[in-house]
Every structure is written in structure tokens, then in C-alpha cells.
Design brief:
Layout: H1 2-7, H2 15-41, H3 55-62, H4 84-96, H5 109-116, H6 120-129, H7 145-157, H8 211-226, H9 239-248, H10 250-259, E1 261-262, E2 267-268, H11 278-290
Antiparallel strand pairs: 1-2
Helix pairs in contact: 4-7, 6-7, 8-11, 10-11
Length: 293
């Protein structure tokens, strides 16, 4: 009985033993902390931004922007016309890759069959001048006729045609030089003409074209999309569709109409794909706005 009682007694029987046990416990903890700190600090680590003040990092930050991605171009140099594939990717693919707004998809021979039957000249005329929902020059008025031709050939040849790549026109001959003795040619003196009484200056033309000009511009550049609500365009006379646009203000609508706009619902090319002056585009916007007020 006494042996069983002794087995269940605590190992710590005196205050001295308790002090020794507690001290040993804390020593083990302290030793463990020291070893952990030694392990962590013995490995060299590099944090984000550690080399931010190095000579190389500073040099990269103050390097001129012009060294990256900028190429100086001589404005007086002859224009280099784009290849058909480049024009297609930048201007035509938005509609002809997906068949948006009724555009025949590139590579769909069935969709192109009736159009190819019209002939190359008709296809080119429609591409340059626009037809139905397709704006003139695909909405990029800066394209040269030859660039449009190349894009048409590129697109149609992938859709069942076999048109020949258009040749670049020969450069215009240089103007004949003036004769060397032109400076020595004697010119007969001309009697002075009496100054006429200055006439009254004509009245300055208004900055914004008249309402008639607005309707004319609308019929020319806007009706293809806004007449039927194609490609997300708010339909002419539809007050509900125009409410959000009217809330943006006239200046924003003018800017979108002149510079073009890419939204979630659709795409509007600059100036509706036309080459009309800014004043006439603004007049067309005013004409459409007046129809929903």
C-alpha cells in the first residue's frame, strides 16, 4: 500500500525543487529563443526596394523617356502606305472578323459570293464611299485610296477572290528647274495702281452650320447607324435611348461624334466615317438632339 502511494507522489516535494524546476523551464525557453533568432539572422535576406538607391536603379529612373518606344519621324518625309493586312487589322477587323452590323465575315465564302459577283470596282467604290452601315473608308478618313484597295484585296482574297495586289503609283516627275539666267531677265516696271476704297468686310460665317446643314450632314454621315439603331447607336427620335447621352452634355457628344467612341454597346467611327468639317458634325448632333427634345 505504501509503495502505490509513493508512486503517485509529485517529483517536486520541497520549495527548493520547485525553484529549480521553474528556473530550468525558463532557461529552456530563453535558449530556444536565442537559437531561433540566430537561425533567422544568419541568412541574408533582401527585401523589396532594398536596391532602390543603387546607382543602376537611380539611373533607370532618371533615364529620358524618349529612349523607350519613341521614334522621331520627319514630318516632311514621304508617307509610307500601309500593307493590306495592317489596314485590315486596324480598321476592318472590328466588323468583318465578327460579322457585326451585317458585315460579311472574312473567310466566309458564302457570305462574300454575291458581293464578289459585283466586281472589284464596285467593292472598292463601296469601301471608299461607304454603303449602308459601313462608313466610308471603314471609319478612318486618313486612309489613302491605295491603302483601302490593299485592304479590300487582302480581305476578299481570303474569302474566295483572286484579285491582284494593287501597284503603287509611280512618283510624280520633279518640277523643271528655272533657267540659270532667270535672275538676269529684265522685268518692265509696272505703274502703281491707285488704292481703291476699301469695301465693307463680309459678315463672318457662323461657327455652327444651320439646321439645314445639320440635316444634310446627318443624311450623309449618321443615318446609316442612327436611322436604324445599328451597332449600339441611339436611334434617331428615340427619347429613351438618348436620355443618357443628353445627360453628358453637348461638349461630350460633340467630342464623341468628331473623335469617335468605343463603348460597351458598340463602336462609332470618327465623324461617322466621313470627312465633314467639325462644324457640320456638330450641326448633325444638334439636329439629332433637337428631334428628342
Amino acid at each position: 500500500m505504501s509503495d502505490a502511494h509513493n508512486e503517485h507522489q509529485s517529483l517536486i516535494r520541497t520549495p527548493k525543487q520547485l525553484v529549480v524546476a521553474v528556473t530550468g523551464f525558463f532557461l529552456v525557453i530563453v535558449l530556444g529563443i536565442i537559437l531561433l533568432v540566430t537561425f533567422v539572422t544568419s541568412t541574408a535576406t533582401t527585401g523589396a526596394g532594398t536596391d532602390g538607391q543603387s546607382a543602376e536603379a537611380i539611373s533607370n529612373r532618371i533615364r529620358p523617356v524618349s529612349e523607350e518606344g519613341f521614334t522621331l519621324v520627319d514630318a516632311n518625309a514621304p508617307r509610307v502606305l500601309q500593307a493590306g493586312g495592317a489596314v485590315y487589322a486596324a480598321t476592318c477587323a472590328a466588323c468583318h472578323d465578327s460579322g457585326m452590323a451585317g458585315a460579311p465575315k472574312t473567310g466566309d465564302n458564302g457570305a462574300w459570293g454575291a458581293r464578289l459577283a459585283q466586281g472589284y470596282d464596285t467593292l472598292l467604290k463601296h469601301a471608299i464611299e461607304g454603303i449602308r452601315a459601313m462608313p466610308a473608308r471603314g471609319g478612318n478618313p486618313d486612309l489613302d485610296n491605295l491603302e483601302v484597295e490593299r485592304a479590300v484585296v487582302f480581305m476578299t482574297n481570303k474569302s474566295g477572290a483572286s484579285f491582284k495586289e494593287p501597284a503603287e503609283p509611280a512618283p510624280a516627275p520633279a518640277a523643271a528647274e528655272a533657267p540659270a539666267d532667270a535672275a538676269a531677265t529684265t522685268v518692265a516696271p509696272v505703274a502703281p495702281v491707285p488704292a481703291a476704297t476699301p469695301a465693307a468686310a463680309p459678315a463672318a460665317a457662323p461657327a455652327i452650320a444651320s439646321a439645314d446643314a445639320g440635316k444634310k450632314a446627318y443624311d450623309s454621315a449618321c443615318i446609316a447607324c442612327h436611322g436604324a439603331g445599328i451597332a449600339g447607336a441611339p436611334k434617331f427620335g428615340d427619347k429613351a435611348a438618348w436620355t443618357a447621352r443628353l445627360g453628358q452634355g453637348a461638349n461630350v457628344m460633340y467630342e464623341h461624334a468628331i473623335k469617335g467612341f468605343q463603348g460597351k454597346a458598340g463602336f462609332m467611327p470618327p465623324k461617322g466615317g466621313s470627312t465633314l468639317p467639325d462644324a457640320e458634325i456638330k450641326a448633325a448632333v444638334d439636329y439629332m438632339v433637337a428631334a428628342v427634345k
